[in-house]
Write a structure and sequence with these properties.
The structure is a homodimer.
Chain A (H helix, E strand, L loop, with lengths): L12 E3 L1 H14 L4 H16 L7 H14 L9 E5 L3 E5 L5 H19 L1 E9 L5 H6 L6 E8 L19 E5 L7 E5 L6 H10 L8 E3 L22 E3 L10 H16 L15 E9 H4 L2 H16 L15 H13 L1 E3 L1 H14 L7
Parallel strand pairs in A: 3-4
Antiparallel strand pairs in A: 1-11, 2-3, 4-10, 5-6, 5-10, 6-7, 8-9
Helix pairs in contact in A: 1-2
């Protein structure tokens, strides 16, 4: 994460993983979510916080989920079901269940199929927010599989040359196991910056950077000015740009990649695409690739080690200490946060205090 | 394609598709390639020219292939074979066969598997240059399937914060059918710009644009200066940047996406990754997704139409005429070039004249 998005150490309140999990679990339970689903939902959220993916952890998302249950947009007891199936594929109707509850179950189905026929892919329609996409992809790792996850989101991103948002941030996550190295875990929006980063920037009082948004005429803002904040409700005076920012820098590639997610995550689920049906509806897609189906697993993992070591020992560019690979900083952050607690902005702690009071849950976080 | 990369109309020599195909077929035949393989190789190359993907058409690639056969890097009669297989997957040893010959056969296998179990994916090791990735992906369209293709290329791209190239341009292509609209066909390198674009820029006498390359210290060159040209042989004073150009604009995303291609296209084939074994070796990966396995095909195609129409009727940004979608300009170019011939730089025509003379093939292109 860019330094500007980190909670300043002096401001941070560090919370241990265990009481955080207890609290989050009880909040989901108060929303009417069954116990086993509370467990998995908590694991998805807190794993994001542990890995330093603060945009998808409790600070940004839990309050949104509580609001969603309150407004009836989220079904706490979804009757999700497989509506179409082949040996390698399934399509799931999520019955308005939160993605952090239903998608792990879909990923289990994909993994089972990959065990049997080499690959498994499950699309999920009528879904709700996915949480951290890489959580679902990482479920494949312990099975010696590669995991993939994507989600077709409501529109907030301008197509190249366009003045109206048509595509979601549409993240893609892929996790692949290594032997001794931390696994490769990629997880990124196909916009220049994740939508949730804007909320985080607002909370931390930071400007947006050049190349992140286009103005109301659709022109990419490439100067170091303070751009207006999009508000996601159609009244925005600026919108996110696809990865690549401008046509010359390759924004048509970010635009096309976001389109792929609308197809594989949205349309292939039979549930439309990001812009239609639109918020709060999301279409998801998960896949599992059995490494054993393609090649020798031990050799694959050793080659992964060699490749990841090559990447992280690349001579650094002037002014930089080292080269990272996707998943390496997250693994390092997880080690730190498991040992020393998760740093939260005091505002987040206050929200927990309030919601615990409101729901009659003991407040144990500070 | 950016205007600067188009052959100037005044300079162009227009060649009809039919004599071009005849000539290309005979050149492959003179290289010792069997007749049916000449047919498919020609189709891959000329389809790139027809669709306006000049970087992967005859002008850039055919001379490279002729050199490769001459040097023995390419096997004209590869004994390619399946070395591992499950119901949904296969791994192919390409026996140094050119990708434009072997990968279409791998894609046929993937399509057959998708017919039976919903998905099919084939990885190809010991491969050689892929040609236009979207050709292989588009093979799925007539079967009412979505096609995917990627290739793990020798290193030419800097990792974020790195000063040494570690990843290939590693293109990803995905094709998905619509009903009445031209299909969605995405095909892009995960670098800011495709490697072949540099050769094309050299031929056309154009500068590279800011954000395309990093200097020898690994610093992204973001000014409008004339940057030095990389030469791909390790002696380069500049290297390509991943899609996103700088960390602030999201280059870690382009870097990670290129990494995904090294994993799915390279390591999952059992043949290493771009940097190892390195040129002229490439690992490829193709996949086919049966739409019928997931959802109703007619409904899917109608929804694709609706989505593609939404994209191309987006209000354009100030200074632009219209919004495109991936595959739309290529379909329009194909209509034009089928009717009016393919425009080539005179230097390309001269190369054809020379090679036809050398190989005793009648020269019929001008």
């Amino acid at each position: 994460m860019l330094d500007q998005f980190k909670v300043k150490e002096a401001d941070a309140v560090r919370v241990d993983e265990s009481p955080l999990r207890d609290t989050v679990r009880q909040i989901f339970s108060k929303m009417g979510v069954p116990d086993s689903d509370c467990e998995v939902a908590t694991d998805v959220l807190v794993t994001a916080d542990i890995r330093g993916v603060d945009t998808h952890g409790v600070s940004n998302m839990l309050r949104a989920y509580v609001n969603g249950y309150g407004k009836g947009e989220l079904n706490p007891r979804p009757n999700w079901r497989i509506i179409r199936e082949t040996p390698a594929t399934a399509t799931v109707d999520s019955d308005r269940g939160l993605g952090i509850v239903v998608v792990p179950k879909a990923m289990e189905i994909a993994i089972d199929k990959a065990k049997k026929v080499g690959l498994g892919m499950v699309t999920i329609n009528n879904g709700r927010h996915l949480g951290m996409a890489s959580y679902h992809a990482m479920m494949a790792l312990e099975h010696d599989m590669i995991g993939l996850c994507m989600t077709s989101c409501p529109p907030s991103v301008l197509p190249t040359f366009g003045a109206e948002p048509r595509l979601g941030t549409n993240p893609i996550a892929l996790a692949a196991p290594a032997d001794k190295e931390p696994p490769f875990v990629f997880d990124a929006a196909m916009s220049t910056v994740a939508g949730n980063k804007l909320g985080l920037a607002r909370r931390l009082g930071n400007d947006l950077l050049p190349g992140w948004v286009g103005d109301s005429d659709g022109i990419p803002i490439m100067d170091a000015v303070e751009p207006p904040m999009p508000d996601y409700e159609g009244r925005a005076s600026s919108h996110l740009l696809p990865l690549g920012s401008t046509r010359e820098l390759g924004s048509h590639k970010g635009y096309g990649l976001a389109g792929i997610v609308d197809i594989l995550g949205g349309m292939l689920s039979g549930g439309g695409y990001g812009a239609n049906p639109g918020r709060p509806n999301f279409g998801h897609s998960v896949a599992a690739y059995s490494i054993e189906a393609f090649t020798d697993v031990r050799q694959f993992k050793r080659t992964m080690d060699e490749w990841l070591q090559m990447l992280r020992t690349t001579a650094p560019a002037k002014g930089h200490d080292r080269v990272l690979y996707p998943g390496l900083p997250e693994a390092e952050t997880a080690d730190d946060r498991r040992a020393n607690g998760i740093p939260f902005h005091p505002e987040v702690i206050e929200w927990f205090r309030d919601i615990c009071g409101e729901l009659s849950i003991p407040f144990t976080l500070a």
